[in-house]
Amino acid sequence: MTADHAALSLIELGAVFFGLGVLGRLAQRAGLSPIPLYLLGGLAFGSGGVFGFGSIQGFTDIASEIGVVLLLLMLGLEYTPTELFTGLRRSWLAGVVDILLNATPGAVLALLLGWGPAAALVLGGITYISSSGIIAKVLNDLGRTGNRETPVVLAILVFEDLVMAAYLPTLTGVLGGVSLAAGLRAVGVSLLVVTVVLVVAMRFGRYVSAVLFSEDREIFLLKLLGSALLVAGLAAAMQVSAAVGAFLLGIAIAGPAAHSATRVLEPLRDLFAAIFFVVFGLNTDPSDIPPVLGYAVALAVVTTITKLATGWWAARRQGIGPLGRARAGASLIARGEFSIIIAGLAVSAGAVEPRLAALTTTYVLIMAALGPIAARVVEPLARAVRASPAVKPAS
Amino acid sequence: MNVEVTPLPGIGVRKDFALRSGQRVGVINHRDGAIELIISRTDDPDACVASIPLTVDESATLGNLLGAPQLVAQLTEEHKDLPGIQTKQLPIFEGSPYDGRTLGDTELRTRTGVSVVAVMRAGQLHPSPDPGFTFTEGDLLVAVGTSEGLGAAKKVLKNG
Fold it and tell me: Beta B140-145 vs B12-18: how paired, if at all?
């Protein structure tokens, strides 16, 4: 019986991974991010979907939690504390404009639908946060790393990621749904913890790196993963959100340790993050999607324009030409992993409108697919507009 | 020359400068050690017409090619009042017997009368190398001497 169960689990898990591999290959062929296809895969398997699987649910649930931890840990590894602080100082104004323009549409829609202030906070976060994973890949694929508008884009992403470090604990507090005073206290405590950890990471990061680092890949991997899960778990127990704990640990690890950590963790992150997207798709009932499709499309249109405007404005402040401004705006359009992480927090807390999951899935499906395409076509499009006789000055 | 250094969070550092033509040329030092040569477009200075990944060896060679002629020209200019004295670049080729050996081992001064005034390595200038300076493949020696002496020195470096 147990042998049968194990066999069934292996077959199911194998089928899932193989299927994701095929989907990933398709996405690559089409020059897209694999995230939308993973979500679709999850939808197909999920409740009310074409298939269903039961025997590996325990594994996929914890694996998707690990996926979130690894996504945020690797994000933290990308940046040194100094980069974060200089980024914050240089780009705070663009960052604030970004928040105002892009969180507002989501928040307003949630309020208009009567889903309440908590859902407004959630949906605002979902429409606000760009996908640094997708964007970094697109910038690299299109050979735009050396472009002059690229630091503008990166600075906005850095700012967004820092905002996440304050936003996620706040969200956890609000979703905890206790009294307003207790909620505010939780928010205050978590913000304090985040600040203290950031400062400590900046001062004593090299000790953290020294403790974790090992020349031996196997030992390093175990210490790294162990500490990430420990910190994430402790952070979750303190209501600071596991993801933020992992993010802060990632920031604290710097120097050569960070480079090897990235190399060691990358395959694991890809594996567990894929499961995370599938599980989110699984938990969305496909029959919930048609009623929210219109809202998702409207939100997609509005927040595409607002991200374009954000990038345009920020790039213009740095003296970038019109083509570069258009590229900066279009690069920022993609939403992905973080929107899903936010929605995942909200759904698992169970404190918000259930249709939110379907709305987020649809929205991210659109934006993760649209982002890379927009980044690609914006340049020829902008050139065509500039060259068209309608816009050309009479000469 | 005003080199602009721009941090690229999560990627590395961009170092570039504007040419007289308005084009930008520079490098991106990736955090993993990779180097990329970037050249901006003429019609859109914000974008790049090329970004070329270089290995460490490739960028060192490029640095030598770009840097050495200027140094030689400068030295030649300084020696123009001394007839018969020339400045030349002498490379340490692959397979040279002095790859991994010192300047003293070559006995260039004794054998050819030529003085090595500088070594270009990886785009860096090492002026007045002492006899203990160890050569490596790809180094460009900047040598001063008579034209016969320089010809002999070239053979010494190639054949031992």
Answer: unpaired
A157 lies within 8 A of chain B by CB: yes
Domains in chain A with CATH codes: 33-49+67-378 (1.20.1530.20)
Instruction: Say if B35 is an interface residue toward chain A (CB within 8 Å).
Output: no
Nearest residue, CB atoms, B9 vs list A79, A259, A379? A79
Q: How far is B146 from chain A (nearest CA, A)?
A: 46
- The reply to whether residue A327 touches residue B47, judged by beta carbons under 8 angstroms, is yes
Asked if the C-beta of B65 comes within 8 angstroms of chain A's C-beta atoms, the answer is: no
Query: DSSP alpha helices (H): ranges in A177-321?
Result: 180-212, 217-237, 242-252, 256-282, 289-317
ipTM of predicted complex: 0.73
Domain B59-159: CATH superfamily is Regulator of K+ conductance, C-terminal domain (3.30.70.1450)
Instruction: Assess B26–A contact: CB distance below 8 Å, yes or no.
Output: yes
Distance CA B11, CA A157 (A): 13
| pLDDT tens column, A240-286 | 778 888 888 888 887 778 888 888 998 999 899 998 888 888 888 88
pTM: 0.79
Strands, E, within B10-156: which ranges?
12-18, 24-30, 35-40, 48-54, 86-91, 115-121, 124-127, 140-145
The residues near A350 (Cβ < 8 Å, ≥ 6 apart) are none
